[in-house]
């Protein structure tokens, strides 16, 4: 796998379930001694407790989003590998490959 040293970022905590109170962190463990938080999925704000604290509950979409973020490094690498393969195998101008190139360009451009 060319350039695919990072396969996934870590989802913390890994044992959360839909309906749980709290948030999900996506952490790059390879960035710094303690790792670096690359994303926070806060959950849905539901209510304020009697102590005037807000409560957030995680839902299925939060978990789908966390998994998508956690696999982002690998998705970028796989997309690049597929585009390289398409260029070598013929039919690199098919519509699906054009769309893949547009997505790859967005993923590579921090200003997009």
Automatic annotation (TrEMBL):
Keyword list, A-Z: Plasmid
Taxonomy, superkingdom: Bacteria
Protein name, entry field: Uncharacterized protein
Organism of this sequence: Lichenicola cladoniae
């Amino acid at each position: 796998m060319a350039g695919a040293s990072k396969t996934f970022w870590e989802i913390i905590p890994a044992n959360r379930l839909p309906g749980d109170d709290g948030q999900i962190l996506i952490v790059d463990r390879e960035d710094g001694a303690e790792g670096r938080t690359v994303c926070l999925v806060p959950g849905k704000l539901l209510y304020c407790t009697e102590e005037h604290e807000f409560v957030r509950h995680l839902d299925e979409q939060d978990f789908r989003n966390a998994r998508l973020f956690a696999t982002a490094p690998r998705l970028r690498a796989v997309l690049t590998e597929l585009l390289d393969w398409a260029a070598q195998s013929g039919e690199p101008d098919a519509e699906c490959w054009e769309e893949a190139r547009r997505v790859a360009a967005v993923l590579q451009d921090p200003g997009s």
